[in-house]
Amino acid sequence: MALSFLDNIDHSDLLPTFNSIREALDYLTISAVNVYASKYLSYATFALLIYDHLLTLPEEVKLVWLGRPSFVKALFLFNRYFVPLFIAIDLATLSGSLHMTDQVSKVFVHWQTCLTEPNTVMSCMASR
Q1: Could you read off the pLDDT of 93-122 as tens digits, one per residue?
Q2: Measured between alpha carbons, how far is 128 from 126 in angstroms, rounded to an integer?
Q3: Distance CA 67, CA 73 (A)
Q4: Phi-psi sector, 10: left (phi>0), alpha (psi -120 to 50), beta
Q5: Residue 47 to residue 66: CA distance in whole angstroms
Q6: Which of 25, 38, 53, 83 pairs with 77 at a CA distance of 20 to 30 A?
Q7: Is 117 left (phi over 0), alpha (psi -120 to 50) or beta?
Q8: Where is the DUF6533 domain (predicted)?
């Protein structure tokens, strides 16, 4: 996916310099290990989140779904089901299973940021 918004950034200070090929290969090896570790840690934490949701589902049905509708319940359900949805989309994108166009990606990132960061909710609502 092309990230056109990064085209205007000077990347020269972002890249490390190396004194030898061995140093560069060590850096690449460590970077690759970190990428894979981050990827698998993300999968593991998502699996734990879904496991927790399944464990607490009977109590949720009894206490939330069968009660009167309220604003607090709506917030709970939004947080309970939209957060895992956003995480699943992120994981699918990072794994290469889901490909988004630049425009779709920008919209997704915008709304994901708006909905998951409380200090930006009002500014996001005002921007649309």
Answers
A1: 878 888 888 888 788 777 777 766 665 555
A2: 6
A3: 9
A4: beta
A5: 27
A6: 38
A7: beta
A8: 40-85
